[in-house]
Write a structure and sequence with these properties.
Strand order of the largest sheet of chain B: 1-2-7
Number of strands of chain B: 7
Low-confidence stretches of chain B: none
Strand content of chain A: under 5%
Helix content of chain A: over 70%
Number of helices of chain B: 12
Structural class of chain A: mainly alpha
Distance between the termini of chain A: 44 Å
Strand content of chain B: 5-15%
Oligomer: heterodimer
Number of strands of chain A: 0
Structural class of chain B: mainly alpha
Helix content of chain B: 55-70%
Shape of chain B: globular
Shape of chain A: globular
Distance between the termini of chain B: 31 Å
Number of helices of chain A: 13
Mean pLDDT of chain B: 88
Radius of gyration of chain B: 26 Å
Order of helices and strands of chain A: HHHHHHHHHHHHH
Low-confidence stretches of chain A: 342-350
Mean pLDDT of chain A: 88
Chain lengths: 350, 379
């Protein structure tokens, strides 16, 4: 009772707001529950049951097409391979999130994991027929774009951040040019550039496939944003750190690699994770240049006559998938921020 | 040491220059092979495609590419400006709601922020577009929540004041009112500094800004005729209308950006120390003036820089219009480069426009930051 009075009815504006919210919930929730659960069609091979009068949400679209949505046009009998790949990737994400695994072995695990995924996806070894990467798709492609994008963009971003703080004017100018140019334009324009302009740049006879071109654009894009986060981390360090390293007579690279970066990256982890989230969401833009990611496969599933008109259900499902990944990352980043903050203030006391 | 640095840089510049030169040579060769003439000459040619909506600038398929791109630019600005206003209002309300002592309201706002921030904008746009075009009834059975307002799968129609010459006069009066209010505020500040007497400049200014247009309206005999949409054939005519594309894009951009603005507003309010409230109360400042003179200036110092970058993000995100068929700059440039093959020029135009917007906003922001920065603080 006391809790109710203090938190819901602490004055007439608050009481009014509470009543308004309760009234909204009362009017909106029952029809939504009916639509989404009670009247929903969960299974229907041809989607006809969804068009019956009074039918609710057509989740049958998801249950019938889930293989296509998850794996795209990957050969049907071989789809255990991307499924296993997703499991390996997710296991790697989870392991990387745990601080007790933050050792050099983790890098080796990543290298081994990515190599394994490459073998699984391409095949071409005995027992695994070759699958060209035009046929990769669905959730697996989204995860691959995000993973490879980040793993290549991150080292580049560190170089860019160092370059922007460099004393060498040419290095600084080129770094600033890259960072500001990329951050000033929408990602779409970079993707268009990769899909229509990049082929013009290359000498005759040389072609890069669509997936790689999109990946290059995503890396160029992510590197610029990550560089600003890394620079923020570098700027947060006390001047004394750099001066002390100089006083010890460390060379530039020793100073940077042994003193500055380890501290700067530690501070920068929470904002880095936030940038990863933004990048993960941005991978959905490849639908515009026709790459077969999660969102594209959902759109393609919707073009079948049996399932046309159920966009709301399909995009709710897409939202749910993206939400799971992004929400997990964002919670993780918040916890980490708290823990790291604790660690630092603790160290200062001691 | 010195010459090593110089050599390193010379090497880097040479490498970049060589890369650019190779790419340029390749490109020139490829363009020649495909018989594409480079340059901006194509802008004067006839575009030959229709554009769904072209407010403020009449356009037909017989017009030039240059005109089509201008229409796209206007459409980009239109959705971005309205989106910024809606997102700011919504974001501020949600940010304050999250700080509310009402548990239900705070949780609802927190849920909104978490949900909207963690789903890609593009998915939200597709969702809203599907919601409007697939799940709303046709114009004949349009939803009719308020008199004169119709929601259908062909877009939203709503009443607008019928065009009247007095509207121009009211706009002029609004501008005059704003200028007068600014002058008044300046005078009031100077007088207070000189004599110590306060002047209710805020109320008087608001009165001027709202009162002058109202006066013009009354003087013209209150022409309040409304243009109400009516069903004609397959769609509504008359009044104001939003196409499904515009409505979905505006809704998506505003709702998505509002979630980020809410967090910025919340952080800004939390950043002001409690002691500041207490100190202004101890000085005997009334709550309102404490808010305006002490709290807001400090909160704004925290809020404004990330807020501008959200505005820039919204403007850049409006380029996702191409995915749902709203004719913004990117969408029209994309059509143009597909038709003419002028890929480099088309993309250069897109990038130049967005870069101009971004860089001018950053320049303005840097100026603003210098102005509001703490005096003597190290930057």
């Amino acid at each position: 009772m006391k809790w109710l009075r203090e938190n819901l009815f602490s004055g007439w504006p608050s009481a009014l707001a509470t009543l308004a919210i309760l009234w909204l919930a009362w009017t909106l929730l029952p029809p939504f529950v009916h639509w989404a659960f009670l009247d929903a069609v969960w299974f229907s091979p041809d989607g006809r049951a969804c068009r019956a009068p009074g039918a609710g949400a057509c989740w049958a679209l998801i249950t019938e097409k889930h293989r296509f949505i998850l794996f795209g046009t990957y050969p049907y009998e071989e789809q255990w391979r991307p499924a296993l790949g997703i499991v390996v990737l997710v296991a790697l994400y989870v392991a990387s999130a745990m601080r007790r695994f933050w050792r050099i072995e983790l890098a080796l695990a990543w290298a081994a994991g990515l190599a394994l995924i490459g073998v699984l996806m391409w095949g071409g070894v005995p027992g695994l027929p070759y699958v060209e990467n035009e046929r990769w798709g669905g959730l697996m492609l989204t995860l691959l774009l995000a993973t490879f994008g980040i793993s290549f963009a991150f080292p580049i971003s560190i170089l860019l951040a160092l370059g922007r703080r460099s004393r060498l004017p040419a290095v600084r100018a080129l770094s600033i040019l890259w960072i500001e140019l990329v951050r000033g334009v929408p990602l779409i324009s970079l993707l268009f550039m990769a899909s229509v302009m990049l082929p013009l740049f290359l000498p005759e006879g040389v072609t890069i496939d669509k997936l790689l071109r999109a990946l290059i654009a995503m890396i160029v894009f992510a590197a610029a944003y990550l560089a600003e986060v890394v620079r923020g981390g570098l700027q947060s360090l006390a001047h004394g750190q750099e001066e002390a390293a100089d006083a010890l007579g460390l060379s530039y690279w020793k100073k940077t690699l042994l003193v500055l970066l380890p501290q700067a990256l530690r501070v920068a982890i929470p904002p880095l994770v936030n940038t990863f989230i933004a990048f993960f969401k941005d991978t959905s833009l490849v639908v515009i240049i026709g790459l077969f990611d999660l969102l594209t496969s959902i759109k393609v599933a919707l073009t079948e006559p049996a399932w046309s008109g159920f966009g709301v259900e399909a995009y709710l499902f897409a939202s749910l998938v993206y939400f799971c990944f992004c929400f997990a990352m964002s919670r993780y980043s918040q916890n980490l921020e708290r823990d790291l903050g604790f660690g630092r203030s603790h160290a200062r006391e001691g | 040491m010195r010459w090593r640095a110089a050599a390193l840089q010379a090497l880097l510049v040479a490498a970049v220059a060589f890369a650019v030169w190779t790419l340029a040579a390749n490109t020139a060769h490829n363009l020649e092979a495909r018989k594409i003439a480079s340059g901006l000459g194509f802008l004067q040619r006839e575009a030959g495609f229709e554009i769904g909506e072209s407010p403020f600038l009449s356009y037909s398929a017989a017009d030039s590419y240059a005109r089509a791109l201008s229409v796209g630019l206007i459409n980009t600005f239109r959705v971005a400006l309205i989106g910024i206003v809606v997102a700011s209002v919504l974001g501020t309300l949600i940010g304050l709601a999250r700080l509310s002592r009402n548990w239900l309201l705070a949780k609802l706002a927190a849920g909104y922020v978490e949900l909207l921030r963690n789903v890609p904008l593009l998915v939200q746009l597709f969702f809203l577009y599907a919601l409007i075009t697939e799940n709303l009834p046709g114009p004949r059975a349009a939803l009719h929540p308020l008199p004169g307002v119709y929601l259908s799968n062909r877009g939203f129609a709503f009443p607008l004041p019928a065009p009247d010459p007095v509207h121009g006069g009211m706009a002029l009066a609004l501008i005059a009112g704003a200028i007068l209010a600014l002058l008044l505020a300046r005078w009031a500040r100077a007088r207070q500094a000189r004599t110590g007497q306060p002047f209710p400049a805020f109320a008087a200014g608001a009165g001027l800004i709202l009162g002058l247009p109202l006066l013009v309206f009354l003087a013209a005999g209150t022409p309040h005729a409304l243009a109400v949409p009516t069903l004609q054939g397959f769609n509504f005519a008359g009044g104001g209308a939003l196409t499904p594309e515009f409505a979905a894009l505006l809704g998506g951009l505003s709702l998505y950006t509002a979630a980020f603005i809410a967090e910025i507003v919340r952080a800004g309010v939390l950043a002001v120390d409690r002691g500041q409230f207490e100190a202004s109360a101890a000085l005997g400042l009334p709550r309102r003036r404490a808010m305006r003179l002490v709290i807001l200036p400090q909160a704004l110092r925290v809020i404004v820089p990330p807020l501008t970058s959200q505005y820039l993000n919204l403007t850049k995100n409006s380029s996702l219009a191409v995915a749902i068929g709203y004719p913004d700059l990117v969408s029209i440039a994309n059509t143009t480069l597909n038709q003419t093959g002028q890929a480099i020029e088309g993309i250069a135009i897109i990038m130049a426009v967005y870069l101009t917007i971004s860089l001018s906003i950053s320049a303005l922001m840097n100026g603003y930051n210098r102005r509001i920065a703490l005096k003597g603080a190290r930057r």
